[in-house]
Every structure is written in C-alpha cells, then in structure tokens.
Write a structure and sequence with these properties.
Number of domains: 2
Strand order of the largest sheet: 2-3-4-5
Number of helices: 3
Distance between the termini: 65 Å
Oligomer: single chain
Radius of gyration: 25 Å
Length: about 160
C-alpha cells in the first residue's frame, strides 16, 4: 500500500487499514519460509511524519500464515499477531511511501523458528518417507528381521562392545 507523502502532515497520523496477500510480498531471496493464507493478513495502524526524512510506522498485523511442520512437512496454520513500531527513512525525491516493505520486515523478524502441526508429531521415516502420524512404516520390521545388517561398517567395532 502506497501513501502520498503529502498526506502526512506533521504529527497528524495517517490511519492505515488494509489487507496484504501473498502476491503483495516481494521475497526475492526466499527468506520467508511461510506463506500468507488466502484470507490475507490484516494490517492496521498509524503513520506520521517525524521530520522531512523520516516516517514513523506504528502497525499491527494479524492473520493466519501457513508454515511447513518441522517434522512431517505438512502445511500448518499459524496465528500471527505482530506489532511494528519503527522509524523509516524517506528520500526528498520520494512522492510515495510504501508500507509493504515494513510489513515484510515485520514478518521476517517475527517468523517462528519452528512450527509443529501438533506437539506430539512423529514426523516422517528417514528411510521410506512415510508420514508416521498417518501410518507405521515397515522399515523397522525389516531392519529387525535382517538383524541390523545395515550398520555402518565404521561402527561395526562398537557393536562388539554390546
């Protein structure tokens, strides 16, 4: 969302109320691991001019983002409720001020380190890729029947200690 700099007068705040969708976010470096849900993110707040070269952005961002579960890779909804209160530099030549980079920065900063679809997610089998939340894989049964024949040869010496 772009605001004309001429609409920002002194300490009189500009009231922002808009939605941001996935196509609005420019993530060329693929830094954001989540994606915005189809309903978008609701952004509200105030923007006011601090001086000729700075704008204060006071934003509140709410909505649902989708992240891959860290264990089973299932898309998982994650509720967002973020605040952004930062001064932003503007150039004298700028006639518009774009709020999307502020929203992007807020999303990057507040992105969760790890999202789980449920606290007791079992993940996926490292050998066959089966989702262990849905089914049991046969890899363990096969390994038991082969009596651990797939032991790394470098670790064979340690097996003798057991």
């Amino acid at each position: 969302m772009k605001i004309e700099v001429s609409q920002l007068h002194g300490k009189t705040p500009y009231q922002a109320d808009f939605r941001v969708y996935s196509e609005d976010i420019v993530d060329d470096n693929h830094e954001l691991s989540g994606e915005i849900s189809d309903q978008g993110l609701h952004v509200t707040g105030q923007i006011f001019l601090l001086n000729r070269h700075q704008v204060m952005c006071d934003l509140h961002i709410t909505g649902i983002m989708l992240f891959k579960c860290a264990r089973c890779l299932k898309l998982t909804p994650y509720s967002c409720d973020y605040g952004y209160h930062e001064p932003v530099d503007i150039k004298d030549s700028d006639s518009y001020f774009d709020l999307i980079p502020c929203v992007e920065e807020c999303l990057y900063i507040n992105e969760p380190f790890r999202v789980l679809c449920k606290p007791d997610c079992k993940g996926i089998c490292p050998k066959c890729g089966a989702d262990l939340n849905v089914q049991t894989c046969q890899c363990k049964n096969e390994a038991d029947s082969q009596n651990n024949s797939e032991i790394d040869p470098r670790m064979e010496v340690l097996k003798k200690l057991l």
